[in-house]
Amino acid sequence: MAVHLMMYGEIRYGIDVSSAVKGLRVCLRFTSGDELVFLDMSAWTKIGYYSEDGSIGQGMQRRLAMLGHEPLDADLTPEVLRRLFAGETKTVKECLMDHKLIIGIGNAYSDEILWQAGIAPMRQAASLSPEGLHGLRSAMQTVLVEAIDKVRIGLQGQTYGEVRDFLHVHSRPKKKQCDRCGGLIERVEIKTRGSYFCPRCQK
Ligand SMILES: [Zn+2]
Q1: What is 78-197's CATH number?
Q2: How far is the CA of 200 from the centre of ligand 1 (A)?
Q3: How far is the CA of 115 from the centre of ligand 1 (A)?
Q4: Could you give the CA distance from residue 155 to residue 9 in angstroms, rounded to a whole number?
Q5: How far is the CA of 166 from the centre of ligand 1 (A)?
Q6: Measured in angstroms, how far is the CA atom of residue 193 from the centroid of ligand 1?
Q7: Whole-angstrom Cα distance, residue 17 to residue 173?
């Protein structure tokens, strides 16, 4: 089974959780009595299934095969990043959010990773130096591992909700000071996505 929660999807798990929720899309009921439910008032959530022998959902398997690298996998080295970005004409922010290259990084975390790495979001991905790629790889690890911990603690066992109060740049109020250098955070649009960065310490 493969699920993309898009912007507003939620997962809940427990006994009889489907009876008191709105926006129910799918409910899986187990013999234990527990339910795994997928909710989405916007109905954007995408859910598909396939069998390992390929007899069901071949289209989905093909789409999954097109996905890029897991950002926390050890095999995503700076050298692999260099090859992924080589020949790209897109900005580094767009490349981070391109799921054919790297999966699972959205608008907020691409801003956080680039802030951590000291790289401006509008920088051309192919222009990054070996040191820049190394810093980007390291920032990916730092930001995502820390976020997983912070969100897990913040949600206190819930499988839904949003915890973002630890982010350094994304959605910061206009002209808020950078936590690192004291410069003023700016918002720019990159391919229609609101992007936040510090012009003083991100180059
Ligand atoms: Zn700064």
Answers
A1: 1.10.8.50
A2: 5
A3: 8
A4: 16
A5: 16
A6: 21
A7: 37
- Which of 118-132, 147-161, 189-203 is the least confident region? 147-161
Cα dihedral value 5, 148, 153, 117, nearest 10: -120
Tell how far the Cα of 149 is from the centroid of ligand 1, in angstroms.
24
CA 135 to centroid of ligand 1, rounded, Å: 16
All CATH 1.10.8.50 domain ranges in the chain, comma separated? 78-197
Distance 174 CA to ligand 1 centre (A): 14
CB distance 84 to 75 below 8 Å: no
CATH architecture group of domain 2-65: Alpha-Beta Barrel (3.20)
Q: Which residue is listed with tokens 């997962």?
A: 11
- In this prediction the pTM is 0.87
151 is written with which tokens?
A: 């969100």
Ligand 1 midpoint to CA 101 (Å): 28
Higher per-residue pLDDT: 83 or 164: 83
* CA–CA dist 168, 111 (Å, integer): 9
Structure-block tokens of residue 95: 């490349």
Structure tokens at 51: 């069998």
